[in-house]
Amino acid sequence: MEQKRNQPLARDAMAYVLAGGRGSRLKELTDRRAKPAVYFGGKARIIDFALSNALNSGIRRIGVATQYKAHSLIRHLQRGWNFFRPERNESFDILPASQRVSETQWYEGTADAVYQNIDIIEDYGVEYMVILAGDHIYKMDYELMLQQHVDSGAQVTIGCLEVPRMEATGFGVMHVNEKDEIIDFVEKPADPPGIPGNPEMALASMGIYVFHTRFLMDLLRRDAEDPNSSRDFGKDIIPYIVENGKAVAHRFTASCVRSDFEREAYWRDVGTVDAYWQANIDLTDITPELDIYDSTWPIWTFAEIKPPAKFVHDDEDRRGSAISSLVSGDCIISGSSLHRSLLFTGVRANSYSRLEGAVVLPDVKIGRHAQLRNVVIDRGVIIPEGLVVGEDPELDGRRFRRSENGICLITQAMIDKLDL
């Protein structure tokens, strides 16, 4: 029965963020942290986008399921997301894989990561569940997706991106009818089905699902008893509903949040070093495709108490300067020049060094005369004096992790192996 709209549906929903993935294509960036905990945009972590979307949409009950190398992620959530108050009917639960159902069982799949916490979810008595991936960059109003879910009478509503058809081969793809009802769900198809009326485009799953809570709990219990299930939403739960019930696609363009400066619906999977570098560097554009300055839809994160950034020296070849760059608090640019670069908190760039196309994570120290071009530098790395990266591809490839597009990922372990 449809709920009367005397309050937003989000107030009776729980956002459940699946944040246990390693993100192995990010190579050494995820050696010590899960992909959702990877830094992004100068201050935030990747997971902050899904969490901020939930908060800005009006959802006040949030759970985060963690698994792979979760300490960095959990510490960030405890520091930055600890403002929810139970007396306001708010909650924020960090749910590590803790063998709650079986003494030998960690989370076996995305569906199992929800199933193992059914008792916690049911205690809150929420009407709707919004299942989210914690590793994508986008802004979206989940209230609009909840409204479509209720109005359509769907058993599951799936967030979908419209992508060129032959670019959808790496996604789960929805085959829909004219009403956007899903008639088939195909995982990574070689020949993706087109959209009715727009055959050159396909609907790719964003990993965002809306359910009525009671229906989802029943479905998860049934799935847990199936010995042949892989306990996964994309492989098991969604295909079952498509075959036996009613699944509806929700197009991202219907609920994406855009400021006056954002022309297109922005969504990025920053799951490779190249994609990660590009999405960060894109923020240095005069009018970037993602507006992180939009105060009407803020990206919440852990706000460190740090002094402002500082630029010093003004000699001809020793000038603290930054052109088309983002520089976070507690950075000191001491006679160093930055061009189209993004610096996280606490970076020290020393005299005569030059950074171009650099994504520099927190607490990095750049030695004098270093020349760094098209790099991602992991947290806490100490760049030695005079190091040159970005001029000799063969030398870079021997020393560092060099991507297909020529982006060099630099870690302290790589620096320690250098023969300087």
TrEMBL record:
Question: Source organism's superkingdom?
Answer: Bacteria
Which EC main class describes this enzyme? transferase
Q: Does the keyword Ribosomal protein apply?
A: no
EC numbers on record = 2.7.7.27
Q: Which GO terms describe its molecular function?
A: glucose-1-phosphate adenylyltransferase activity
Site residues by UniProt (Could play a key role in the communication between the regulatory and the substrate sites) = Q67, W106
Keyword Transferase on entry: yes
Q: Which residues form the Nucleotidyl transferase domain?
A: 16-284
Cite the CDD domains for this sequence. ADP_Glucose_PP, LbH_G1P_AT_C
Q: What does this protein do?
A: Involved in the biosynthesis of ADP-glucose, a building block required for the elongation reactions to produce glycogen. Catalyzes the reaction between ATP and alpha-D-glucose 1-phosphate (G1P) to produce pyrophosphate and ADP-Glc.
Known partners and oligomeric status: Homotetramer.
**PANTHER family for this protein:** GLUCOSE-1-PHOSPHATE ADENYLYLTRANSFERASE, GLUCOSE-1-PHOSPHATE ADENYLYLTRANSFERASE-RELATED
Q: Which family does it belong to?
A: Belongs to the bacterial/plant glucose-1-phosphate adenylyltransferase family.
Q: What is this protein called?
A: Glucose-1-phosphate adenylyltransferase
